[in-house]
From TrEMBL:
<feature type="active site" description="Proton donor">
    <location>
        <position position="179"/>
    </location>
</feature>
<feature type="active site" description="Nucleophile">
    <location>
        <position position="371"/>
    </location>
</feature>
<keyword id="KW-0119">Carbohydrate metabolism</keyword>
<feature type="binding site">
    <location>
        <position position="178"/>
    </location>
    <ligand>
        <name>substrate</name>
    </ligand>
</feature>
<keyword id="KW-0326">Glycosidase</keyword>
<comment type="similarity">
    <text>Belongs to the glycosyl hydrolase 1 family.</text>
</comment>
<feature type="binding site">
    <location>
        <position position="302"/>
    </location>
    <ligand>
        <name>substrate</name>
    </ligand>
</feature>
<keyword id="KW-0378">Hydrolase</keyword>
<protein>
    <recommendedName>
        <fullName>Beta-glucosidase</fullName>
        <ecNumber>3.2.1.21</ecNumber>
    </recommendedName>
</protein>
<dbReference type="GO" id="GO:0008422">
    <property type="term" value="F:beta-glucosidase activity"/>
</dbReference>
<dbReference type="InterPro" id="IPR033132">
    <property type="entry name" value="GH_1_N_CS"/>
</dbReference>
<dbReference type="InterPro" id="IPR001360">
    <property type="entry name" value="Glyco_hydro_1"/>
</dbReference>
<feature type="binding site">
    <location>
        <position position="134"/>
    </location>
    <ligand>
        <name>substrate</name>
    </ligand>
</feature>
<keyword id="KW-0136">Cellulose degradation</keyword>
<dbReference type="InterPro" id="IPR017736">
    <property type="entry name" value="Glyco_hydro_1_beta-glucosidase"/>
</dbReference>
<dbReference type="GO" id="GO:0030245">
    <property type="term" value="P:cellulose catabolic process"/>
</dbReference>
<feature type="binding site">
    <location>
        <position position="33"/>
    </location>
    <ligand>
        <name>substrate</name>
    </ligand>
</feature>
Length: 462
């Protein structure tokens, strides 16, 4: 697997001595973003199939119908992981492959795909971390109300039991719901993601049902003998646009909605003040379910968020739908940017980890960085793909984790987003996050310089 490459030869990286023993290096992906094979072996439709088919929803008009064709090329992809020497691989299970109608009859062929994948990972020495829901909700469940309906949380628990029983003996770690805040805000409030609803604050019931689904799935997985169960919550440090009271209030509200609304039910068993009253169902009973202890707390981190009050003179971030929302996301000045335009702020990861520790103290279990990465469109050159900016990004963020660890935060792993370039939701194939380049016309995989660099970092730790 090792090829000479400009970065791996020229760039000498001091070893990451500040990370604890047993720290896991991993990479993450998600089913709809890499698998393709959406019609294969009895898979049912998901909300993302439907969404992508609607004109104007995805920037380049594409879909995950083929994606990286991982459904057929998984063995080659596991070989790439073996070449990296990954400790762990985080993937997601497509609910509509296992239960094409969302509930009821199990599709044995769909389940068998994950069974083979898990065995191959173990064979390659890579610990499987399986996410139950990374956004590809079975369309029949959306037709019944999706996450606005309590029934979806109950169906989710049934699905968790099915996969927990099938794979629980071998999956090392489980993640329930990926980023319930993104599903609520982008899927149900602003409509940037599937299912494309624009309910603004009326989307709050979706938050509650995603959280309830998480809690019920934790129970179901434990009952099935799961080895370890956690979550993957997207967190961002929030900074106020200016020092004005209006901007600080807007930033506080955003912080509450984005960070605290999801972390606090899980970790403290309560909603931030005022929010419990807005939620449906027997909220107190549900919170007891949602707060079931976790083995690890997964954090997905990309960048900080700067927030101002409506009417601000600051520059709003390109595509943020503001509508009637009481805050505006604005540009964070003074930092390098990824190809996606996101500010590169490794200190934001350290600060986020310190903030979690400060806010939740002993209620915070061991933290795993379940996603962290960047998109750059580096060209394929005759002698490789020289993604030095990704190397710098990963190096900076791993050092930020070291700093958080030395300040007393228990962090047990770092899973980079992503193993492969893939289907980036509403951005289609325009954003490349992978350690491995994918030529979508030929499905050829080419490891980038960052792949060699990451392999060396992992080897150096051993
Ligand atoms: C996360 C998401 C991933 C990936 C990443 C990069 O929010 O979980 O699926 O798309 O962002 O944008």
């Amino acid at each position: 697997m090792e090829r000479p490459s400009r970065s791996s030869v020229e760039r000498s990286t001091p070893p990451l001595t500040g990370l604890p023993a047993g720290f896991r290096f991993g990479a993450s992906t998600a089913s709809y973003q890499i698998e393709g094979g959406v019609m294969a072996d009895g898979r049912g439709p998901s909300v993302w199939d439907t969404f992508c088919a609607e004109p104007g929803r995805v920037r380049d008009g594409s879909s995950g119908a083929e994606a990286c064709d991982h459904y057929h090329r998984w063995a080659e992809d596991v070989a790439l992981m073996r070449g990296l020497g990954l400790d762990g691989y985080r993937f997601s299970i497509a609910w509509p492959r296992v239960l094409p109608a969302g509930s009821g009859e199990v599709n044995a062929a769909g389940l068998a795909f994950y069974d083979r994948l898990v065995d191959a990972l173990l064979e390659a020495g890579v610990a499987p971390m399986a996410t139950l829901f990374h956004w590809d909700l079975p369309q029949p469940l959306e037709d019944g109300g999706g996450w606005l309906s309590r029934a979806t949380a109950e169906r989710f628990a049934e699905y968790a039991a099915v996969v927990g029983e099938a794979l629980g003996d071998r999956v090392a770690r489980w993640v329930t719901v990926n980023e319930p805040n993104v599903v609520t805000m982008l899927g149900y409030a602003t409509g940037v993601h599937a299912p494309g609803r624009t309910l603004m604050f009326d989307a709050l019931p979706a938050a509650h049902h995603l959280l309830l689904g998480h809690g019920l799935a934790v129970q179901a997985l434990r009952a099935a003998g799961a080895k370890a169960v956690g979550c993957a919550n997207n967190h961002t440090p929030v900074v106020a646009g200016t020092d004005s009271q209006a901007d600080r209030d807007a930033a506080d509200l955003y912080d509450t909605l984005w960070n605290r609304l999801f972390a606090e039910p899980m970790l403290l068993g309560s909603y931030p003040a005022g929010f419990g009253d807005l939620m449906p169902g027997p909220v107190a009973d549900d919170l007891a379910t949602i707060a079931a202890p976790l083995d690890f707390y997964g954090v997905n981190y990309y960048n900080p968020t700067r927030v101002a009050a409506p009417g601000t003179d600051l520059t709003p971030i390109g595509q943020t739908p503001s509508g009637d929302l009481p805050f505006v996301l604005v540009e964070l000045d003074g930092y390098d940017r990824t190809g996606f335009g996101w500010a590169v702020v490794p200190d934001g990861l350290r600060d986020m980890l310190l903030q979690l520790r400060e806010r939740y103290g002993d209620r915070l279990p061991s933290v795993t960085i379940t996603e962290s990465g960047c998109a750059y469109d580096d060209p394929v050159e005759a002698d490789g793909i020289h993604d030095d900016r990704r190397i710098a990004y990963l190096d900076g963020h791993l050092r930020a984790v070291e700093e958080a660890v030395s300040a007393g935060v228990d962090v047990d792993g770092y899973y980079t987003w992503s193993l492969l370039d893939n289907f980036e939701w509403a951005e289609g194939y325009t954003q490349r996050f992978g350690l491995v380049h994918v030529d979508y016309a030929t499905q050829r995989r080419t490891p980038k310089d960052s792949y060699d660099w990451y392999a060396r970092v992992i080897r150096a730790r051993r």
